[in-house]
Amino acid sequence: MSILGKLKPKFWDYEDVAAGPYKYLFNFRRIWRSAFLFTAGVSLIPLILMIFADYKITQDAIESEIVLRTSGLVSNIRKNIVFFLNERKSALDFVGRDNSFEELNDPSRLAVILENLKKGFGGFSDLGIIDSFGLQRTYVGPYKLERRNYGDQTWFKKIRDRGVYISDVFMGFRQVPHLVVAVMHELPDGTLYVLRGTIDIDRLKELFSELKKNRSSDAFIINRNGILQTSSSHHGKALEKISLPVPGYSPKTEVIEIEAPGGEPLIIGYAYIPDTQFILMFVKQKTEFLEPWFKTRSDLNWILVVSITIILLVILGVGTHLVKKMHEADQRRIMVLHQVEYSNKMASIGRLATGAAHEINNPLAVINEKAGLIKDMFTRGKKYAKNPKLMSLVASILSEVQRCGSITKRLLNFAQHIDVNIQLIDLEKLISDVLSLLGKEPEQRLITVSVNVQEDIPQIESDQGTLQQIFLNLFNYAFEGMGEGGDLKITIKRPEGELVLITFTDNGHGIPRQDLDRIFDPFFSSKAKKIRTGLGLSITYVLVLELGGQIKVESELGKGTSFIIALPINFEGPKNRGETS
Amino acid sequence: MKIRVLIVDDEEAFVQSLSERLMIRDFHVTTSLNGEDAIRNVKGYNFDVVILDVRMPGMDGVEVLKEIKKIKPLSEVIMLTGQATVESAIEGMKLGAYDFLMKPCETEDLVTKINKAYEKKSEHETRIREAKVNEILTSPRSVLE
């Protein structure tokens, strides 16, 4: 048998054959299933709903915190960049105002200024003075750029309109990424000139190096065309086109979530730097942000799985146990019902027998007397005395009346309460008395009778006459059942409790299974075998009940039959026969 | 002298045949078909033995028995029962009936019982008579009381 088979409760395959139209009430598998599903549903659905609502709320909170944190971070860096650029711009402005055009055009003076700027502010790599035609008049720095003409370059045209210009990062003549800050000044005579400084982008990068600390996060600057101004760790080198879309313009810091080309969600914080083409970008993988939360959540999920398992096991256990109890109670109910049914049946048969016997007895008495009178007339009168034919006819009428009378008397006995006379009885002695009553019958039938008595069988309180009748009936039944030759074993045992078990086991024909239930019915006879009980077993049944005991039959066809009688040691009155007297 | 027998039963055919058979056997037989008639008969005549059916319409056997024992305590009563109520027969015995018989009964049994009942009754009467004689002998004045 498999483990599942062992675990399977008894009610699983049980089917109440007698339940009829209310069968569904006794479908324990259905009861068990609905109890289990209902309880599990009621306890698990709210739990799971709550857990997932909580997950959602927590995740939302975490995401909004991510936005807040990112936006704060980006705002700060933006401020720094704006400040950095403004500082450089103001420095150039100051240099222009502090020095005359002549002083600025003195290369040695300009070199001093560049040195001061480098020391004071840092980030400047060269400095140049360009006249209003775009010609670089004076230049100090690592490259030979004197007399270079910027007149036709876009930035030069733009500066003439705005007065200040900050360029994109570009390679320019020198093949190093840099950006240019230019400030226009006006001479007293109205002519314009431009003070132009080049700034290393390394200095700019330092401003947001903090953001790049983490390997998975990335910070860089692009221009509005999506050209990377500083190199990015994941999205391209400086001056290349960025692989992400350029976010739309917004005057303040924004945080958006997009899907990277690889499919993973990215959190992007960005800010447009005012007065420039620059956009500060901060990119981080969303999963990175959520990782601590995911870790907590997987722990929670474990707890959830374990508790759901425990809940299911408990419901399964409790449900199975309860339904098992119900099933047992129902089994007991059915047994009691059967018993009551049987008792009622016996009681009705008893009443019927009484009535029938009474109604038959009176006419029988009349027939008896009439026939008797005829007989008297024959024996005493002269006329018919010598007619043997008539005499024998009358005699046979009388004997048949006697026979009917004995049947009705037995019927009456069957239904009657007999005053039981309770006394202490030694069962072993009683059985041997009954055996001696039977005389030589067992011997003649070649039947061996053995009586096996367990030690310390107490004397029981019971009625001797009734017990004799019971044993006599059982002996008769066994003898009839075995015919010629056989073994009849009688055992007396005392199991737990205040009762004694007497078992009559023969090795006769046995009783077919379908007849076992009706074996105690009056006049029952089986079609299968020549079992004819007459009234013997019915009377035995009633008598055993009268003594407060119970009788049971077990039989196997062809092997024999056992009658088991349980008698109380202390008589406490008869078992209910279901009679409403 | 013939033994005087009263048969009480509501079953007329039974009463008739039984009385005839008892008459053949040399009994003096009177019959009643119900309790009231039986009591009337008992009041008017000294029966030695009354054969009384337990179950009858109207007054039943046990009631009739009680009455008879009141009127004629010396008359012996044999109860006849045709049914389950052996209890009532037993009750009758307790109330002073001599014996009981189940219907249908062997006539010979009945005859034996009637004879025995009569013997008992005569014995009783003899003893009472003796007692009375003794009483008179010891105190002749008691006759006057």
Chart the SSEs and their pairings.
The complex is a heterodimer of chains A (581) and B (145).
Chain A lengths: L2 H5 L20 H71 L2 H4 L2 H14 L3 E8 L4 E5 L13 H9 L1 E3 L11 E9 L5 E9 H7 L10 E6 L30 E6 L5 E8 L5 E8 H95 L7 H28 L6 E4 L1 H12 L2 H4 L2 E7 L6 E4 H19 L3 E8 L5 E8 L6 H4 L19 H11 L3 E7 L3 E9 L13
Parallel strand pairs in A: 11-13
Antiparallel strand pairs in A: 1-2, 1-5, 3-4, 4-5, 6-9, 7-8, 8-9, 10-12, 13-14, 14-16, 15-16
Chain B lengths: L2 E6 L3 H13 L2 E6 L2 H10 L4 E5 L7 H11 L4 E6 L4 H9 L4 E4 L4 H32 L7
Parallel strand pairs in B: 1-2, 1-3, 3-4, 4-5
Keywords:
heterodimer; A: 581 residues; alpha+beta; Beta-Lactamase; Heat Shock Protein 90; 5-stranded mixed sheet; 49% helix; B: 145 residues; Rossmann fold; 5-stranded parallel sheet; 5 helices; 5 strands
CATH architecture of chain B: 3-Layer(aba) Sandwich
Order of helices and strands of chain B: EHEHEHEHEH
Distance between the termini of chain B: 32 Å
Weakly predicted, low-confidence segments of chain B = none
Give me the number of helical elements of chain B: 5
Structural class of chain A: alpha+beta
Q: Residue ranges of chain A: pLDDT <50 for 5 or more in a row?
A: 577-581
Which CATH architecture of the domain at 418-568 in chain A is right? 2-Layer Sandwich
The span between the termini of chain A is: 52 Å
Number of strands of chain B: 5
Give me the Rg of chain A, rounded: 59 Å
User: What portion of the residues of chain B fall into strands of 2 or more residues?
Assistant: 15-25%
Q: What general outline of chain A do the C-alpha atoms trace?
A: rod-shaped
Oligomer: heterodimer
Helix and strand content put the structural class of chain B at: alpha/beta
Largest sheet of chain A: 5 strands, antiparallel
CATH superfamily name of chain B?
Response regulator
Main beta sheet strand tally, sense and closure of chain B: 5 strands, parallel
Can you tell me the overall shape of chain B? globular
In CATH terms, what is the fold-level topology of chain B?
Rossmann fold
Mean pLDDT of chain B: 86
